[in-house]
Design a protein that fits this description.
Layout lengths: L2 E6 L14 E2 L2 E2 L1 H10 L5 E5 L3 H9 L19 H14 L6 E5 L8 H14 L3 E7 L9 E4 L2 E4 L18 E11 H5 L12 E5 L11 H14 L4
Parallel strand pairs: 1-4, 1-5, 6-10
Antiparallel strand pairs: 2-3, 5-9, 6-9, 7-8
């Protein structure tokens, strides 16, 4: 199974300007996920998909391929990951590399490691699933605790809201997609209708959690990453 890795990294970011190039311990943020892709043994090729010349230049210096430029219409705030990944797959087809599966990696998940990537690809290959996603176990905000308000009156949010599970230790495990990794089969991407998130019917999970599921959306999370990176490096 030939696997293509795609790191989407557009230039625009409203929450943190030039987020993918922000320095973390003296390195651009995108460097960390590029390291993870380079250390993975199950990726045959990996590319950075960007419309931004500076990001493209930095990515190349870090050892990533940037063999095409992402169209501007695929680099707006309202474009989901699936058309970006489909575009990358088709561009690589034209270059002679035909992927059987495509793994997307968020540049804003800097604690991902090569072994996490390999584990996701191995699960796709061994199970025959349509897609493998990375997930994080919910420690707070469990769906059984969710309520809705009518004025100030508290009501169950839906059938899952259950007052019999008020103690955390009694809750059944619940998970959310952390957004760090998605591995999709080629057939799934080719048949995508544009009406969903392109996960297919048979979706499997690899559990990450902790720092590996940390995704940078704002300046506070970027500061957290800098702090934890410094701790990890044993810095003062």
């Amino acid at each position: 199974m030939q696997v293509l890795g795609v790191i989407p990294a557009r230039g625009g970011s409203k929450s943190v300007p030039r987020k993918n190039l922000q320095l973390v311990l003296g390195r651009p943020l995108i460097a960390y996920v590029i390291d993870a892709a380079k250390n993975a043994t199950r990726l045959d090729r990996f590319v950075v998909s960007t419309e931004d010349e500076e990001i493209a230049e930095v990515a190349r210096e870090l050892g990533a391929e940037v063999p095409f430029r992402r169209p501007d219409e695929l680099a707006t705030d309202d474009v989901s990951i699936v058309p970006v990944v489909r575009h990358a797959m088709k561009m690589m087809d034209k270059s002679g590399f035909r992927a059987d599966a495509v793994l997307s990696l968020q540049a804003t998940s800097p604690f991902l490691e090569g072994e996490d990537i390999d584990r996701a690809i191995e699960k796709l290959a061994s199970t025959g699933a349509d897609c493998v996603v990375s997930v994080e176990r919910l420690e707070h905000g469990h769906p059984y605790w969710v309520k809705r308000l009518e004025g100030d009156r508290v009501h169950p949010f839906n059938d899952a809201s259950d007052d019999s599970y008020l103690q955390r230790q009694d809750l059944p495990p619940a998970f959310i997609l952390d957004g760090g990794m998605f591995v999709r089969r080629r057939e799934l991407l080719e048949s995508w209708s544009g009406m969903d998130f392109g996960l297919g019917e048979d979706v499997r999970a690899v559990e990450l959690g902790g720092l590996k599921s940390l995704h940078i959306d704002d300046a506070l999370e970027l500061d957290m990453v800098r702090f934890f990176m410094k701790e990890k490096a044993g810095g003062p």
